[in-house]
Predict the structure.
Amino acid sequence: MQAETTGRWQAMRRGFVATMIVWPGVAPFGMVYAVSALAAGLSFAETLGMSLIVFAGASQFTAVGLFAAGANPISIIAATAIINARHLLLAASTASYIRQSPGWLRAVVAFQLTDETYAVGVQQFEKTGGDAWFQFGANLSLYFIWALSTVIGSLLGALIPDPAGLGLDLIFPLTFIAFLMPMVRDRVNRSVALLAAGISVAAALWLPGSWYVLLAGLIGSAFGAWFAVLTPMQAPKEQP
Amino acid sequence: MSIWLTYVGMAAVTYAARAIPLLVMRNNPPPWLALWLRYVPAAVFTALVVPALVTTSGAAGRVLSLGPAVLAGIIGALVAWRTSNAILTVVCGMVSFWVIRMVMGG
């Protein structure tokens, strides 16, 4: 029992530390979110409250825009549901690694699953197998930096030059490039990435919200599975 | 008060998307689903990267925008391909973005 508790704690700590790699990519967005929320008329408590309760970057930005436009709560909640529908795919993918964990733990992990912690978790699980405690630590790490950057943005907002003007919003895609490139070493994954690139750009231009992530994720991965069946020699190694 | 109730509604729909697959998928997924899910990471990461590099959001919605970010992304991809180092990728990508923008007079 003692050893088990220690193992959980260490897995959580490893997840927390591993997620620090995405902090520089996330913090500018948290700060910009806070500045735009205050500018839209939200109080400091309401600005931080949304980061703590909702904890979903893209939908928080959208909600700020809708609050500023005086939209009604139902339309804000509906927009949030549409933007965050992509989490269905992230959660299904994560579930395939940690489904042996107890239900309550998976329910806890679900609260803070994001694009970033999904990426950190999958990278780890591909090497060592699934670990819900690692994922929980990763989630807490991102929750912490998101809340902290919201506070810093609220306090220093007026002093910081426009982060988008500096190009700091580029840190996020660059971080994900670093996650993606080691993954596309085999032909199937390369084809998946090429197809997903085309679909996501087309869908980003013509569909609202972040449907493009869900659409490209579903079609790209389905194509990969089909392609892997056609060319079994190219299929990557089995999961442990 | 209604702003906090809105938050609760936003959190509920977000939590549903994050929790339902995690709570429902308890048994071994059928082989076709396991194979499908194996290629989700590459597809999702690509979808998070490429539109962020080649489009910008404006008042009129998202539009194609091929600028310094595209070149910086390509340089970052080459660095990531050779080194698999996330910090080096971000540093090289950002520095080349600033240099390219300066050269182009942006």
